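Re: [help] complex structure
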Amino acid sequence: MAKAHKISGVKPLCSYRENARIILPQKVEEVYTWEPFIRDAARREELHNMRISIKRLRYTMELFRVAYGSPKRDSREVTVGDDKRFVEFLGVIVDLQEILGDIHDADVVLEVLTDYMRQSERGTAAPGIAPLIAQMKEARDGDYEKFLETWEQLSAADFKRKLLSFLLAEPIQS
Amino acid sequence: METTALKTEHISPDETLEVCARQIIVNYFHQMMSYKEGAKVGSDIEFVHQMRVTSRRLRAAMDNFVDCFPEKAFNKHYKTVKSITRTLGAVRDLDVLITRFEKELATLPESEQADIRGLIEHLQQEREEARKPMLRLFAKLEETGFERKFLTFFQAL
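Output below.
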């Protein structure tokens, strides 16, 4: 598993809100470092690393949710509209994490089944294992197609630019 | 038991990052450690799962807030949290596989069940082995006062 990218430019003595706009865009960029590899279904390691980067982005978004929305003076409330957009973006990230999670789970199950067959020298004749391997491969292919389709749709909709634009936007005092 | 993100409503976005970072790390730490006893018992797989998820959330927070703390002591605590995630992960991965194959088993005709039963038994033995490093780590954390030291460091102003 790849390490988290080092976050730069953090200002500990500045506000949580300001630092959200420094940290979150870097988390988005970390996710996109894996993009060049995802159109090859066999790049298991890179797909796994993208899943982990997406998970880190998700957790960081959840941490900073309170920092988005227009602050009302003397209040910790945020405006409903901005929170709704935040939740929509977060929902996309969670969906991507889940599809990539399904792909990873299938990869792990396939590895376990294949190793078990090899270790026990049951070969391809094992009545219980061989059909499961075939079934799992099919499920993995389906999950991968679903992921790629989702990713391409998001790319066509300019998702990255919209997400970065939202995460970088300065709050408007109301 | 439910996997949820930490409630951050009590965090004021106008407060300094340093102050918020301490609150968040301490809160996640308490949440993570609250699952330890259940994970030690091992009869309900959810405790290991929740402790692992919370340790990941804690690490994600620590990754973001590293610049708020003195490096040397911070890194020591970070490494320990990473060890917690790793040892829990080894157990959790096997729990997931066992659960999955148990479900598969129910869908198979009797003639095809023997191989899967054998695989499940094999994975259960591996799980018992995977629990040993986790339990050793928990014992070490207790012996060395990790919890007290972690909280002293992150609560200090």
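The mean pLDDT of chain A is 89.
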